[in-house]
Every structure is written in C-alpha cells, then in structure tokens.
C-alpha cells in the first residue's frame, strides 16, 4: 500500500499543534515508501531490526534521522553506532556500556532513551523504575552516551483504562526522573503508536512512533 498523503499531513498538523514529534516506523516497508514520506517532509524514521536498518540506511538521503526502536543486542551495536540518531530501547546497563564504547570509537555522543517496562505482558522488554534510577545515577561514567528520556510500550489490549494507567505510570517515572536529575536533561517521553497515540499524548507523550497508520498494515 502506498503512503497516504492526506493521513500524513493531518497527523503532522495535529502533532505539531501539540508539540509532539512524529516518528515514522518504517520496519518491513520498502525504500520507495520511505522516500515518498521523505518527499512530504518527514525526517525521523525508525526501524526495529539491525540488519534491515543497515541495509536501508545507505540507500536513503543522509539527512534522515534514524531511530532504533527494537530490542538491541549488544553484539550488534557496532553496526549502527556510526550513524544512528537515537537508540530508544536501552534496557540494560551492559547495553548502555556497549553503546558508550562504540560511540567512543566513532568519536560521537549517541543519544538514547531508557526503555521502561510498563505493560502487563511478561514478554515486553524494559527496565523497572528502580533500574531506571540506578542507571541514571551512573550515567556520568559513560560520556559517549546521553540519556535524553524514556520510552515505553503499553499492553496489547483494547482496555483503554489499562493502557491509560500504563502511560500515566511511565509519565510519573519521567517526571520524577526529571526532578531528580537535572543533568543530563531528560526531554523525550516516547510513547504511543498508531492505535493509541492520542491517548499517549493526553498522558504526556512528546514523541509518538507511528507505523501502520502511515504506511498501511504490515504483512
Ligand atoms: C512496530 C512498532 C511501532 C509502530 O506500530 P504501529 O502500530 O504500526 O504504529 C511502534 N513502536 C515500536 C516499538 C514498534 O515495534
């Protein structure tokens, strides 16, 4: 399915009005679809799989800001460290240490988000609140990473009340972290996808990760 131009412009206008960043999730989608959205002005794109990101990145304009939103294995950080704009799924100290090491090799500071486990499902990755604070306290040891916020995924359910309470939980951790750690400055709260982005924004999201609404359903 080609990119829906009207949907993009409407969504972009809605998010601009609320000061929310739109991240276009292009996983499994062809280069042509990404280019089409790029032509409409979109610059922030996200992928979930290292190999797919590494394959696509050289074929697309260099001013795209690539976000990594999947589960990142430590031994794969080296493949994306030279160009990745924001690594959103940091869910362990050892992963943060590896990003720091690879960023140093490329003489970069890589911005990251800590992924917090907010869903009821066991299978979703992420840190507990306590682990978030423990990592934030250690971040001065890792000068090549900059933690700029938190990311989370709500449970996969139609229960709006539950999703709302999970988003609000993440928001409260974000607020607490911002109070406690003035440096580095935490400014990004990445939550909300195609099905729940409006609710996420009502709960304080500053960045939504939207795939199927823009590109059509994934097969
Ligand atoms: C796939 C994915 C999205 C986008 O999901 P849609 O429902 O297609 O908008 C957002 N965040 C993460 C972490 C994803 O893996």
What is the topological layout?
Blueprint: H1 5-17, E1 21-25, H2 31-39, E2 44-47, H3 50-56, E3 65-68, H4 77-80, E4 86-90, H5 93-105, E5 110-116, H6 129-138, E6 145-152, H7 160-180, E7 188-190, H8 197-202, E8 207-210, H9 212-215
The structure holds pyridoxal-5'-phosphate (PLP).
Pyridoxal-5'-phosphate is lined by residues 25, 27, 48, 69, 153, 193-195, 209-213.
Summarize the structure in words.
The chain has 219 residues and is an alpha/beta fold. The chain has a single domain, classed as Alanine racemase (TIM Barrel). It contains nine helices and eight strands. An eight-stranded parallel β-sheet has the order 7-6-5-4-3-2-1-8. The longest helix is centred in the C-terminal third of the chain and has 21 residues, at 160-180. The chain is globular, with a radius of gyration of 17 Å. It starts with a helix and ends with a helix. The relative contact order is 0.15. The structure holds pyridoxal-5'-phosphate. Pyridoxal-5'-phosphate binds next to β8 and α9.
What brief labels describe this structure?
single chain; 219 residues; alpha/beta; TIM Barrel; 8-stranded parallel sheet; 8 strands; 40% helix; globular; binds pyridoxal-5'-phosphate
Short description:
The chain contains 9 helices and 8 strands.
SSE arrangement, N to C? HEHEHEHEHEHEHEHEH
Would you report the number of β strands? 8
Per CATH, which architecture?
Alpha-Beta Barrel
Distance between the first and last residues' Cα: 11 Å
Mean pLDDT: 95
CATH homologous superfamily heading: Alanine racemase
């Amino acid at each position: 399915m080609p990119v829906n131009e009207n949907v993009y412009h409407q969504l972009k206008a809605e998010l601009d009005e609320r000061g929310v960043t739109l991240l276009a999730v292009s996983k499994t989608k062809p280069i042509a679809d990404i280019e089409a959205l790029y032509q409409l002005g979109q610059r922030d794109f996200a992928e979930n799989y290292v190999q797919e990101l590494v394959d696509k990145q050289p074929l697309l304009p260099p001013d795209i800001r690539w976000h990594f939103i999947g589960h990142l294995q430590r031994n794969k950080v080296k493949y994306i460290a030279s160009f990745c704009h924001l690594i959103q799924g940091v869910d362990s100290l050892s992963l943060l240490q590896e990003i720091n090491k690879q960023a140093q090799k490329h003489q970069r500071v890589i911005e990251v988000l800590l992924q917090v486990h907010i869903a009821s499902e066991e299978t979703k990755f992420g840190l507990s609140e306590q682990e978030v604070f423990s990592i934030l306290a250690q971040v001065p040891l890792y000068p090549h990473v900059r933690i700029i916020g938190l990311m989370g995924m709500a449970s996969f359910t139609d229960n709006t009340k539950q999703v709302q309470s999970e988003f609000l939980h993440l928001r409260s951790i974000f607020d607490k972290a911002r109070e406690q750690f003035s440096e580095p400055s935490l400014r990004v709260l990445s939550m909300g996808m195609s099905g729940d982005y409006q609710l996420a924004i009502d709960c304080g999201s500053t960045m939504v990760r939207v795939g199927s609404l823009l590109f059509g359903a994934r097969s």
